[in-house]
Amino acid sequence: MVRVLICGDLVWAHQECNELFEGLAEVVRMDSPSRADFFANLQPGGKYDGIVGIYRHNISADRIGIFDKELVAKLPTSVKWIAHNGAGYDQIDVAACKERGIFVSNTPGAVDDATATTALYLVISALRLFSHAERDLRAGKWKSSHRPGAAHDLTGRTLAILGLGGIGFRLAELAHAFPMRIIYHNRRKVEHAPAWCEYYPAERLDEMLATADVLSIHVPLKKETEGLVDEKMIRKLKKGAVIVNTARGKVIDEDAMIRALEDGHLGGVGLDVYPDEPQVNPRLLEFPNATLLPHMGTETCDSQKKMEIRALTNLRDYLTKGKGEDLVPEYQQ
């Protein structure tokens, strides 16, 4: 019987894991305390020898590090599929996997609702200054420092979405209910998007930025998107605009964003992600108009169970069909 490796803890889908692989594969748990021990047990005769597929969760990086080029090179030649639990997969060197003939899948869709509702909370809090108000209340100040002139309703405001994938589109649906005007930029027009989602191609990106009251970021972290929201892009936003980020911290030039908060060009930010998590730039803590969350996007039992099952299903489908449904885009080019 073939062997698959659970690399990172399963929390919610133990029963589903047993059902998916019963009679199909031996499920091996990764219990290495260190990267060195993990490498040693990948060798012939080691406890992970002969594995053909890996279920991976980011929490495994706490013990064995990310799936970088070095780690991928150490995997047995039998490994052909890495089923990553998460929409973002920047902790996996996909290019190194492709060189070795290893396929990588992620879990799009399973994260959409939870991450989009997180983004919606950040939009609301950043425009209404709710995070600042709560801090005042907890400090016994009631609303003595609240300035109604700095707070805004969502109704009638314009939400610009940078990247209309599953999460961005779900946010669009939620925000449209207020209603907010929804505009977006994507590499290409999303054909299934409704008419109220207004597309701005690359040649109109500056126009979109100048129109936006809120810019919500939903692009994956890749080499070409690191620092994508830079000084130039931020300064093209109208004065008083808000930036919301539930994607990855490194997509924004953090120093440029902080400068724009300091000089008042930005009216506020709502952040769930940071460049060097779990570290947070202490300068961000000083801004009363910054709503900050500790990467809470998918921190619900409902979404985490869906993510675990979807990743495990991709791995099962590789064993039974030769291919999982959620290959990352690098394999589809």
Provide an overview of this structure.
- Helix content is 34%, strand content 17%.
- The protein has twelve helices and twelve strands.
- The strands form two sheets. It has a seven-stranded parallel beta sheet, with helices on both faces.
- Helix 1 packs parallel to helix 12 and helix 6 crosses helix 8.
Give a brief outline of the structure.
This protein is an alpha/beta fold and 333 residues long. It has twelve helices and twelve strands. It has a seven-stranded parallel beta sheet, sandwiched between helices. Strands 2-1-3-4-5 form a five-stranded parallel beta sheet.
Secondary-structure blueprint of this entry?
Layout: E1 2-7, H1 14-21, E2 25-29, H2 35-42, E3 51-56, H3 61-64, H4 69-74, E4 81-84, H5 94-99, E5 103-105, H6 112-128, H7 130-138, E6 158-162, H8 166-176, E7 181-185, E8 197-199, H9 205-211, E9 214-217, H10 231-236, E10 241-245, H11 254-262, E11 266-271, E12 290-292, H12 301-321
Parallel strand pairs: 1-2, 1-3, 3-4, 4-5, 6-7, 6-9, 7-8, 9-10, 10-11, 11-12
Task: Write a concise keyword list for the protein shown above.
333 residues; alpha/beta; 5-stranded parallel sheet; 12 helices; elongated
Globally, the shape reads elongated
Could you state the order of secondary-structure elements as H and E? EHEHEHHEHEHHEHEEHEHEHEEH
Which strand order do you get reading across the main beta sheet? Answer: 8-7-6-9-10-11-12
What is the percent of helical residues?
25-40%
Low-pLDDT runs of 5+ residues are none
Spatial extent as radius of gyration: 22 Å
Instruction: Provide a count of the helices.
Output: 12
User: Helix/strand-derived class?
Assistant: alpha/beta
Count the E strands. 12
Termini distance?
A: 33 Å
The overall pLDDT average reads: 96
Proportion in β-strands:
15-25%
